[in-house]
Design a protein that fits this description.
Length: 269
C-alpha cells in the first residue's frame, strides 16, 4: 500500500528547491494548497457538515444550498445564476459550502496561506510562538485525473466545465450517477482575488473521505499527491522571509481588506 511522500523544508530556499525538484518531473504545472494546520484534511466544506454521512445526504444538502442561494442572493448581484457551474463557483467565492476545494497554481501563494494561516501566541518578548505544524500539499492534476477517470480511459489533464469527462460531477446530478473520486478542474475567475491567487479547484464526487486517504486506500499514482510539512519551529523565520520577498497580504488579497490586513500586521497589531 503506498504512503504519501513527505518533505520538511526548514527555510524558504529549501522550500523553493523542493518545488523545483517536483515541478521538473511532471508533464504540466503542479497545483498547491496551503493549510495553516497540518491536521486539516483535504475535504471540501460541504462534506464537513455533521449530517453529511452518506452521498445521499450530501446530494440533498447541495440541492438545498443552491436553491436557497439563488432565491436569496438576487438583490445583491446582477449575475445570471441559470448555469449550475457558474452558480457553484460563485457560491464558493462567497463561502457557501460546496463540493469544491480551492488550490492554486502558485507555490508561493500556497505557502502564504500555510504560514499566515498558522495560529500563534505572542511571547513575553513579543515574538510569535507557533504550536502546530502547517502544510503545503502538492497535486499533480494530470496523474490524479487519469487515475480518477481511468474507468473512462481518460488521457487528458485538468478539466474545464463543459468537458465531457466532467459530466459525472455536474451540480444537481443525482449522486448515484456521479463519479467516485475528486478531479482537478479550472474554474471561473469571478473576482480579482481568484485571479491574483491563480485559483484552481478539485471537485468531489461520491466518495466523501479526504484526498489523502483516497491516495493511500485507492492506490493513486505515486507522487500524484505530496505533503510538504512546515514544522512549527521553522514557521516564524519562513514567514518573515516570505514577507520580505513581497508575498504579502495586499498581493494575495488585492483589495482594501488585504491592504488593511497588511497595514495592521506592519504596525504590530
Amino acid at each position: 500500500m503506498p504512503s504519501i511522500h513527505e518533505e520538511k523544508p526548514k527555510s524558504l530556499p529549501e522550500y523553493l528547491a523542493l518545488i523545483e525538484k517536483y515541478q521538473t518531473s511532471v508533464e504540466e504545472s503542479l497545483w498547491y494548497r496551503g493549510c495553516g494546520k497540518a491536521s486539516y484534511e483535504l475535504k471540501p466544506s460541504l462534506y464537513r457538515h455533521s449530517g453529511a454521512k452518506t452521498p445521499d445526504h450530501v446530494a440533498d444538502l447541495e440541492r438545498k444550498l443552491m436553491a436557497r442561494f439563488r432565491q436569496r442572493s438576487l438583490p445583491y448581484h446582477t449575475r445570471s445564476l441559470v448555469d449550475d457551474w457558474n452558480t457553484l463557483f460563485f457560491m464558493q467565492h462567497y463561502g457557501i459550502p460546496t463540493r469544491l476545494l480551492d488550490w492554486t497554481e502558485n507555490p508561493l501563494i500556497a505557502l502564504h496561506f500555510a504560514l499566515m494561516g498558522a495560529s500563534y501566541k505572542k511571547t513575553k518578548k513579543g515574538k510569535l510562538g507557533f504550536k502546530d505544524d502547517a502544510t503545503v500539499w502538492l497535486l499533480d492534476p494530470v496523474k490524479w485525473n487519469r487515475h480518477a477517470l481511468s474507468h473512462q480511459s481518460y488521457n487528458g489533464g485538468a478539466l474545464t466545465p463543459g468537458d465531457e469527462a466532467l459530466g459525472g460531477y455536474k451540480p444537481n446530478n443525482t449522486f448515484s450517477s456521479m463519479n467516485k473520486y475528486p478531479v482537478a478542474l479550472y474554474g471561473e475567475h469571478n473576482s480579482p482575488r481568484i485571479v491574483a491567487q491563480q485559483g484552481v479547484f478539485t471537485i468531489f464526487g461520491q466518495v466523501i473521505e479526504p484526498m489523502e486517504k483516497m491516495y493511500v486506500d485507492r492506490e493513486f499514482p505515486e507522487y500524484s499527491l505530496v505533503r510538504i510539512t512546515l514544522e512549527s519551529s521553522n514557521i516564524d523565520n519562513m514567514r518573515k522571509s516570505l514577507l520580505r520577498h513581497g508575498i504579502t497580504e495586499s498581493v494575495v488579497y488585492p483589495d482594501l481588506e488585504g491592504l488593511a490586513l497588511e497595514i495592521k500586521r506592519s504596525f504590530g497589531f
